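ugh finaly. both done.
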Amino acid sequence: MSYRKLEFGKTKKGEPVSLYTFTNSSRMQMKVSDLGAILVSVIVKNKYGKELDVVLGYDRVEDYEADELYLGYIVGRCANRIAGAAFELNGKTYELCKNDNGKNCNHSGPDYYGKRLWKVERIEENSITFSLFSPHMDQGYPGNVTIYTTYTLTEENEIQIEYRATPDADTLINLTNHSYFNLNGHDAGTVLDQKVWINADQYVEPNAEYLPTGRILETKGTAMDFSEPKELGRDIEADCDALRCGHGYDTSYLLKGEGYRKAATLESEKSGIKMTAYTEYPGVHLYTANFLNGETGKNGAVYPRRSAVCLELQYFPDAIHHDNFAGTICRKGETYHKKNAYRFELDV
């Protein structure tokens, strides 16, 4: 196991940005940046022994700063959507930025954590810990909090992502990694021939604004069912309210079980690569990159619509407004601690 540090560029403010590359004995690589604690690259071998970068991203810092699609970002303070860009906590209303349909808040933007320079707290041969101080009323949220994100590359070809935070006031916290995966390679085009399995038989019903209605629906017998592995493209154009709302899959699933467990798999017959996601969160948000639109990525690659899939491990969207959803409230002095992982293997 080894790592190296390289210059990645400079921010608009002139701050130097670094890229950290970790390599295990199987030659799998994980590249992360102190800009946004972004997962820039994941390189694994396909069934023919060819190395593929299976994460969409950019070659330049300025492209990440201009990005509005959250490629590889750590998203916070509260990932996903909040209705009305406001919430009430302890009898006080907090206003957030209306960056979604002009009236809701999405991923706590536009002052995203993914566009900020994180501090490197610790580096070991197979892991790196970044920290970001988020002051009281940052993005509209109460409480000072320092957020720690640790990436670890294991010899089992697993990328572990761990979050820790302890606020000094009651607040909302919902952290996730927003990587876009394509197991045929980041530049391979459509992802619709790749198969997904989700450890769930229920999903969160969305309305026309991608916000939860509060209802939990059964997947059985619907286009939303991934209880058995199925190609993403098989039902994506089905006559289904959830698919119409999201212009494809943009859906949160209620995972079975509790604790740290298997959440979902993504597999490609073409490359032979299988990715398994693990989490402690109650949900996984399946997103089929419906709003990619020909962006230019690494090595000049073009990223058309639905050329990747996100498996966002997190709490449900707008949980603060739904008593039946696991809460995103983190109390003063309480330690927020979540562990997720993506494991890669050949399934041939």
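ok and the 2nd:
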Amino acid sequence: MRDLSVDHLLGIKQITAADIQLIFETADSFKQVINRPIKKVPTLRDITIANMFFENSTRTRLSFELAEKRLSADVVNFSAASSSVKKGETLVDTVNNILAMKVDMVVMRHPNPGAHVFLAKHIDAKIVNAGDGTHEHPTQALLDSFSIRERLGGLEGKKVVIVGDIKHSRVALSNIYALKKQGAEVMVCGPTTLIPKYIAELGVKVEHNLKKALQWCDVANMLRIQLERQEIKYFPSIREYTMQYGLTKPMLDNLDKEIVVMHPGPINRGVEITSEVADSGHSIILDQVENGVAVRMAVIYLLAGKINRG
């Protein structure tokens, strides 16, 4: 059996194009499983996985939990809001207490960038990054690429624009790394205030005009405005943002080609994307949700294969 080149999924930056290909081929098999009448396989019956979410999450946490249960793993859910973290317990102490319960893998979302790298050095369990601050969200980028591959047949040479709040988006950074590793061309589009200064160093194009970006691309990945991460105002008003960067059906109809529309969720309907677009034939948003379970099953399965081998 082919193996991942890494022992943990800490970020897309650390994995290779061959790793991505292996995850996708494994996810293809699992997608067949989750579309059968009996959606479970007994593959990870002896594995215990702790889901540790130090930030609120509904979709990602449920997707991971479903993936783990489809693989027949034992699942422990940990919420920081109701834990001893509130009493001052350190991250390592929290995790070591959970590991004392003989947990093999930790799926963690944490507000601090690099928390997963720190943890991987201190504890003896496989770590999956379910989002660290504004840094990375590797499984979201993998399921996004997997969904594009499914719709367009591959990523090589495809043009993907990521639109919106690039500055605060871990989804954007992970997607840029993943798309570039698979030979796609990447553009970011949004207000100047929401495009980080370092972005051109990643080898991506920058465009501030949404209509021009749509003319260029094969795929538009629409991000929500992350107001919860913004300490200051980056644009005058939501209404003004929507007028400049909101994707509407007439915009798509005016293009001389078909493009694919994506969104990592949760969608702010009527802000970055209208309901008409989100529910249209252009959209693969629900495919992304389904593919998220298959891709996360693949990641967990491949990392679990390394547990008894160190």
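summary for the 2nd one i guess: The two ends are 16 Å apart (CA to CA).
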